[in-house]
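Handout, tutorial session.
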Amino acid sequence: MRLKLPRLFLYFLALVFILNIVQSYFTELIFDEAYYWYYAQNMSWGYFDHPPMVALLIKLGNFLFNGELGVRFVSCFLSIGTCVVLWLAIDNKDKRQHIPLFFILVYSMTLLHAYGFLTLPDTPLLFFTALFLLAYKRFLKKPDLLISILLGLLMAALMYSKYHAVLVILFVILSNIKLLKNKYAWLSVIIGILAYTPHLIWLFENDFVSIRYHLFERPNRAYEFEDFTLAFFINLVALFGFTFPWVYKSLFKTKPHDLFTKALLYLVYGVIVFFFISSFNRRVQTQWLIVVCVPMVLIVYNYILSNPQDRKWIFRMGILNIVILLFLRLGLVFEPLFPIVYETHGNKNWVNALREKAGDIPVVFENSYREAPMYAFYSGNPSYSLNNIRYRRNQYSIDGSESVVQGKRIIYISKFKKEGDIEYQSAKADTIFGVFLDNFQSFRNLKTHLNEIEVMSGSKELNFDLENPYDIDIGLSQLDFAVISLNKYKNVIDIIKIDVLPFDEKKAKAKAHANTRFKFTLPKDIKADTHYIKISVSENKLYWGINGENVKLPNGSN
């Protein structure tokens, strides 16, 4: 492997890097980036939605720069790093004659292009996937102690980036089952598990909250061919834009003539088949497929180097893709050029408008892990997302951010309010209202534990425990309780307030080892299509919280 890069390659690399740095500086954050910036304000071995790698990238960038560039700086390096690693993984002797083609191929892929500067979990996933494949190629030639350790560390880095990385590791192993008899391969696995142990400990200490949410708690809806499976195929086209016919032709024409190429093919087909099957259960987001772009660069580039006609079309259509993408990138900064009001438009404006009316007091956003961190990023003031039963849990549900607003005078922002003490315009020109609240008190971390055995037995007289993790006792007069009924897709269909009878306590004791126990009668008017129930708490007349786990009714309904 020659590490010396051609001068023309370095020129293109420098051009891409400068473009991404400039774009990073002038483009406002998208909501997910603001959310991950919020992660980085309190570094941890894990977060509600993702492993910690994306937060680490932002934290490192913030040591050097403030603002948007600080959030994206390391991603700009990883982008060109991915490009370099892909180049090094290509052995074809003709590759130096077609350097412009290589860059056109890489940056005509829509998400590879976008993630050249955006900081999202997929950014490190792409980089470490490329590095993992390069290391695996070296492993196939000569397995030894050093490359085994490197492979193990890279597997851990992949898993620290995004949970989807398990597919990369799995399909590479499936492409070469003999690895199961290779002592160096097992050493890599052991090294990877050891390096990943801090996150596994974090998951254990947090009741595997991330795994449970992604696999079991995430709401869904009834299957629709157009929005599920058809959308999946549209995403496969969207990944490559106008080059897609020749990209997929290259894939279909490539044969597994060696173990490395076989690994690339297994990875691409494996991910596609996995998410095709998933599309019959839920909508597959485009970025879930992005990892196939890394092996596809290697497959397609090697193929078109030997096929001049396809090379010509990839070159032409790739340039067309890049022109469109560059225009859209310009539109991210200059709103009139973009076909819609996008996430990078108007955030500073609405934040400044709200801050002028809020002053320095905290702002509590109802059901928005998107607006809360965006407001904190651009205003520099504290914010919080108060999540209720009509929304979903997120990082604000498990960290200590609630304490920032306890007992404070706050502004409460809700998109559902029709009037309020203040109003401002969102980026999409919607009028949003907020109200001032003094001595704000929420207890969103109260947990209810419904007796699952009693529910499954069909009993109408049920018990549940209330767990109070706070440092203060909470009077039961401050709390109301309800049975939440959910359909088979785990969407809320009804909220029924219930009368509860405590067994002994008149208050939920602070950090009590024994939870406060209640009994209640299951409401008779639970809807027939109810598949799950849970117990929700309303504290101080706030809207019902996300306090309990879903418990399945016997036979899936009442």
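The second record follows below. Compare its token runs with those of the first.
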Amino acid sequence: MSAPPETDVAPGPAAPLLEVRDIEKTFPGVRALSGVSFEVRAGEVHALLGENGAGKSTLIKIISGVYEPDGGSILIGGRETRFTSPEDAKRAGVATIYQELLLFPELTVAENIFLGHAPRAGMGRIDWRAMRARAEALLASLEIDDLAANQVVGALSVGNRQRVEILRALSHDARILIMDEPTAALTESDVTRLFDIVRRLRARGVGIVYISHRLDEIFAIGDRVTVLRDGAYVGARNVADTNASELVQMMVGRRIDNLFPKTTVPIGAPVLEARDIVRHPMTKSVSLTVRAGEIVGLAGLVGSGRSELAQTLFGITPAESGEIRLMGEGVTIRSAEGARSKGIAYVPEDRGVQGLVRPMSVLHNFSLAALGALSRAGFIDRGAERRMAEEGVQRFRVKTSSVEEIAGRLSGGNQQKIVLGKWLANNPKLLILDEPTRGIDVGAKAEIHRLMSELAGAGVAILMISSELPEVLGMSDRVLVMREGRFVAEFDRAHATSETVGAAMMGEAASVERAA
């Protein structure tokens, strides 16, 4: 038999670097993933979107080998494989960078990069010179010229630590890089540098799974986007062919016409008046006023002193000098308990560490800040406690199976609603919100913003700290800009724009503009 004639046949498209097909995963009482399929091509930034609880974290843990799926398959380069541990995934070229960076602060950059697989010399000894040389080569490959292989990681900024994590992944020859909320704690300059690295990796053929709640980042860096909802695949889009409204509707299953539902309400008398407040080293002669029904937005770069000011006003780090007046009366606030008793509530920046007791139930978290009001002769009124929690769940639309559910098992947005509800149980006059929507999805953000408008309408004075300019501009009646421990600008709502506020944050404003 003669051989078949040769023909010019164009090769088919290359198999995706990563493909998951019909993935199923169930935990006790919860179906986390139901038939989810997803793929990442070489040289592609593929964004993964969904509300908290949509299944994103479970999916990436399956891809990373942390969980084994109950059904479905994983293909790497077109070949079906099975991961039983993170080491299996790492050997297959999959690396994951989580929000909580897994570095050793006492070790150097080079030591962290090659921990567990350092080059060896004779007799099995670590070849320190070769390790430093390889680390320097990795730094040069990504054009990182402001980091040195011998720097101690504990002295680095968050952005630089994150770059060390990326270099560690590349040291394992990772072809698939998963980035989980990589910009959550970064400054704007760090975000710019991160995006530069992502683009370089994309140009080298690395496939990147990019998870973020910030839609502007998806449009800035993404090629394709896949949306999950309630553990199921909703759809995929080319980033160039979609828009924010469509993605939001895919994520939440409904239209959100107004992410910032700010309503105009009458502004009343001053609730908080602070004059020349000093708390070294970050609060330097600060003065401000917040009135009943008013939302005052506090903008500034990370490290400008915003959170430190909030903690001073709430008595966590009491003021060293200056005057604080509440409802026209001079007060001294030396502790958080003293602030609470005077009608101040504080929702901290880190809800997991400072705002919520994760191992406790929804019921007990809701009642934590109001135990005095729930106690009779030294005993807690359990019936009143349960009513308070159930009313809070209904009012704040917390998605939970019951008030007995462990709070740490809920999504980030629902945890934030509990923290907010816990403090509002005391009916405060002044509410201080530090990053009220950080790390939560767009639907939960809209709910938090709606609650803020309702509270302002009821006469509560709100001081809101946020790193997201759209949130500051969308929800504030006035905007104060802080830099290096001082207020440097003030804008009323009509004159607060991303350009004017951003310039003041960066130190480019010519003068302080006072609200009319």
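Points raised in discussion: The chain has three domains: 18-252, 256-343+428-516, 358-422.
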